[in-house]
Amino acid sequence: MKVGVVTFPGSLDDRDAQRAVRRAGAEAVSLWHGSHDLEGVDAIVLPGGFSYGDYLRCGAIAARSPIMTEVIAAANAGLPVLGICNGFQILVEAHLLPGGLIRNNHGDFVCRDQRLRVENASTAWTNGFTVGQEITIPLKNAEGGFIVDAETLKRIEGEGQVAFRYLDVNPNGSLDDIAGLTNAGGNVVGLMPHPEHAIEPGFGPDTPDAMRSGTDGITFFTSVLQSALARA
Amino acid sequence: MPTIVVEVMPKSELLDPAGKAVTGALTRLGKSEFSAVRIGKRFELTVDGAVTEAILAEAQQLADDMLSNSVIEDVVRVYVLEKTVLESAPA
Q: How many whole angstroms separate alpha carbon A172 and alpha carbon A104?
């Protein structure tokens, strides 16, 4: 099982995502934004960071890079794609997920261990969770406010496309406390929090048990292994 | 060389935190005659040669597809600049 992680100019968390893939038991394949070759991977991660310095709009230029032509085609054919933070912004700009992400309503960068509720546990990246499960995943962004028109909001809420919701506080003014989405097929998932930063005891978010002991993020990566096995 | 200008603004119903921050600064400076500030973007597309109808249509298309995101922004105006700013700028 091979999971590709795309590096764009300005990606920050591509190495962390590759490490998460390896810890989940898969082979991590480094993919390059300027290439058209997906190298036969079974799933793709678009990592966090500040691709192209957030110029134009967050994720806008990366969404139009050569590799994204292939990622969009593969996603539309059912290949699992996970967009984390800037990767979520890229998925939205590529129209693989609905809506848009704007500057946090309070205007500040936010960095915190964020509690989330899993709303959809039947996607390629969330099948290891249960619906209603509460997890803690680090969040770090300045432009994570999710917005969408009222009609689309009603549709995605009605069709179970809200994958994650913020608990305790809404850190950025997102509509309906939406932290992450999935597409109609359940193969594309995007979220602002960073699951790749919660995969190893000692390096994850704080939990009531111990400091930095949170590993809820690894389930994203083990889930996609399960879904790939099911597809095979 | 002729220049096509594309002006993009955040949708009026959306919060514009950057504009809000500037509004706050104006209030602190006592400029109470300005009740609100909103910040948008201006793109200048330089064209090699004359601006034809086709090129202007292309710019309009680009404005809608790439230079703006219709979920969060509106294209306010696409027009040809009579004299470019760069021509009068010091070298």
A: 4
